[in-house]
Automatic annotation (TrEMBL):
The lineage of its organism: Eukaryota, Metazoa, Chordata, Craniata, Vertebrata. GO terms for cellular component: external side of plasma membrane. One of its GO terms (biological process) is cell surface receptor signaling pathway. This is Ig-like domain-containing protein. SUPFAM superfamilies: Immunoglobulin (SSF48726).
Length: 649
């Protein structure tokens, strides 16, 4: 046959068609121009018992005789092609079996078919005998329950009836049988390995059980409470509870299995999981007010419900970093930078509580109360109610009341009530001359009082007794145009020294004579050029706190003013109100007069006269014309027997 396979026997026959006595035959390989004489035989055949790949090539022969003719012609050339035997490959699964495990050896031939397989082991040509543990089917040898005696080298070879009758000998596989392994079980919590199953586990944690065996190819069977119970699940190497709950607590085992039917490892040691409820952090703030003011003190307290003890530390959360680890976080004094949301949680080793509720801290500027008095316009014997209002909402304010007491060039505050009041009202009843003066208030709250700023002062003039000094105004009216001159004088029978002119505006209490726009001559202040900011309540004040009557002066940059009495008028007097224009010294020709916002007179002379004034004529007056509208002025009417009436602003 041609081609032939390595190892086969090849026979070449040389035939000469003649009756001559051929004594020998010469054999040649390769071409006639570069040939090798292989041998000289006296036989007609050349036999290669086990052909090699190197013996492939061209062959021919020639007969040799001692008589004539001495040689035959050269024979035809025969080509011998040599092919390698088919390869056989041996594989084993698993590669490192354990005692009792099933082992499968597979002999694979890459070409042709109809092969039978022979199995050998232990480096000798000892065929593997069939037994109750060893069975062969086709290209497969199965050792159903491998034992230590099965260790050693294995190889295989294919055989068949047709050419080629065998394969090459396969690679050798070394089988090492090891003792049955034991699965190892480890516990991790929140991706951190836990050295002991006594570690506290809290609800919401991520708990992972990891089962390992020293080799590969395993699936893992998980058991809870009893290792001989059916597995709760079959997974790869991990069994995860995320998040873990109390009901997941218990004792767990694992073991590996591979193959079909599965070959199992020994059970792992048990791991106990004990799950407790995660403590709940509750954040409180004291004082529990909706608004906290700059300078106050607040205390945030983090309390753990369900499991908290003294071993816990605390984390605080705010947009600013807080390094505090105690359950209380005290802020004193509070600043606007402390604004924002606060949360906390407990920390104990790997354990953490839930995050607390959010507490919002709103920090506001220190409030300034507003002091008002009622009634504003007093007659002798009237009661006066002071009201202190704090815009910022709180039910815990306590109100403190003070009277301005002159001290050199400034004022000090004297308590009207040392303990203050829970109500925002304070009554002077009746309001007499001893109550004449300035008043302020402030509010406080908390155990160690946090005080607001003082209110702007309010002043009270009582008309039950005449003052020793009076304030006069020139021109003698309450309304004045800007860019005009005004003189204010403190006049006392006899000596007027020791008195000073004061005024109250929306900016507070200050000296009534502005040095850079006015001059002081004795007890008279001359304002050379009036401005709108010169508006205010003016009065004279002594060093002992005695006050004169007050005059409410209005300076306007409009074109119309109302000329009205500076001081209170007495019932029965005649009162004339005059509407004046800035550029015309005389009266406006036509004007409308209003009292308390109601039109009461149309007049073509620019003035309105009340022949006999009465208490009902008291009120706010103004006038209007084509040139504009005047500011309003209050006209005070006193009874015939009253000495002086006052004004409170």
């Amino acid at each position: 046959p041609n081609p032939v396979f390595t190892g086969e026997k090849v026979t070449l026959t040389c035939s000469v068609q003649s009756d001559s006595d051929w004594t020998r035959y010469d054999w040649y390989k390769d071409n006639t121009f570069n040939h090798n004489r292989l041998s000289q035989y006296n036989r007609t055949t050349l036999t290669i018992n086990s052909v090699k790949e190197s013996e492939k090539g061209l062959y021919w022969c020639q007969g040799i005789s001692n008589s004539r003719p001495t040689s035959s012609s050269i024979s035809n050339q025969v080509t011998i092609s040599v092919k390698a035997l088919p390869n056989s490959t041996l594989s084993v699964e698993p590669t490192s079996p354990y005692t009792g495990e099933k082992v499968t050896l597979t002999c694979s031939v890459g070409s042709d078919s109809d092969w039978r397989y022979k199995w050998y082991n232990n480096r000798s040509i000892n065929a593997v005998n069939q037994s109750d543990r060893h069975s062969t089917t086709g290209d497969t040898l199965i050792i159903s329950r491998v034992e230590e005696s099965d260790q050693g080298l294995y190889w295989c070879q294919g055989e068949r009836d047709s050419r080629p009758t065998s394969t090459s000998i396969s690679n050798q596989v070394n089988i090492t049988v090891k003792a049955k392994p034991k699965s190892m079980l480890a516990l991790t919590m929140n991706d951190d390995k836990v050295s002991s199953d006594k570690e506290d586990i809290l609800t919401g944690d991520r708990v992972t059980l990891t089962c390992t065996v020293e080799s590969s190819g395993w699936r893992f069977y998980w058991y809870r409470d009893r290792p001989d119970s059916p597995p709760v699940t079959i997974t790869e190497s991990t069994y995860t509870f995320n998040p873990v709950s109390v009901s997941d607590g218990g004792q767990y085992w694992c073991r590996g299995g591979r193959g079909e039917p599965p070959y199992y490892t020994l059970n792992s040691d048990p791991v106990r999981i004990t799950v407790t409820e995660r403590p709940v952090a509750v954040l409180t703030i004291q004082p529990n007010w909706t608004q906290i003011f700059i300078g106050e003190t607040v205390t945030l307290r983090c309390v753990l419900l369900g499991g908290g003890d003294t071993d816990w530390q605390y984390e605080w959360f705010h947009y600013q970093n807080i390094s505090q680890t105690e359950p209380e976080y005290r802020i004193s004094p509070v600043r606007t930078s402390h604004n924002g949301s606060y949360r906390c949680k407990g920390v104990k080793g790997r354990k953490t509580s839930n995050h607390s509720n959010v507490v919002q801290l709103t920090v506001s500027v220190k409030p300034k109360p507003v002091l008002s008095v009622s009634p504003q316009w007093l007659n002798p014997g009237d009661s006066v109610t002071l009201r202190c209002q704090v815009k910022e909402t709180s039910t815990d304010w306590r109100f403190f009341w003070y009277r301005n007491v002159p001290s050199d060039r400034s004022y000090t505050f004297k308590h009207l009530s040392d303990d203050g009041t829970t109500e925002q009202y304070y009554t002077l009843s009746p309001a007499g001359r001893i109550h004449t003066g300035g008043y302020v208030c402030r509010a406080g709250r908390g155990n160690s009082f946090y005080y607001t700023d003082y209110s702007a002062p309010q002043f009270l003039w009582s008309g039950d007794l005449p003052s020793a000094v009076s304030l006069t105004v020139n021109p003698n009216r309450t309304q004045h145009f800007t860019r005009t001159s005004v003189s204010l004088s403190c006049k006392k029978k006899g000596n007027s020294t020791g008195w000073r002119l004061m005024r109250y505006t929306d900016r507070g209490t200050e000296s009534g004579c502005v040095s850079y726009r006015g001059t002081i001559q004795g007890s008279t202040c001359n304002i050379r050029t009036t401005l709108i900011q010169d508006s205010g309540v003016y009065w004279c004040e002594s060093g002992s706190g005695e006050n004169s009557n007050a005059v409410n002066i209005t300076v306007t940059d409009g074109d119309v003013i109302l000329e009205s009495p500076v001081h209170p008028v007495t019932e029965g007097d005649t009162v004339t109100l005059v509407c004046k224009h800035r550029t015309n010294i005389s009266n406006i020709i036509k004007a409308d007069f209003y009292k308390d916002g109601v039109l009461i007179r149309n007049d073509t002379t620019g003035e309105m006269t009340i022949p006999v004034v009465s208490k009902s004529d008291e009120g706010f007056y103004k006038c209007t014309s084509n040139e504009g509208e005047s500011p309003g002025s209050w006209v005070t009417v006193r009874g015939e027997n009253s000495c002086v009436c006052g004004v409170c602003v």
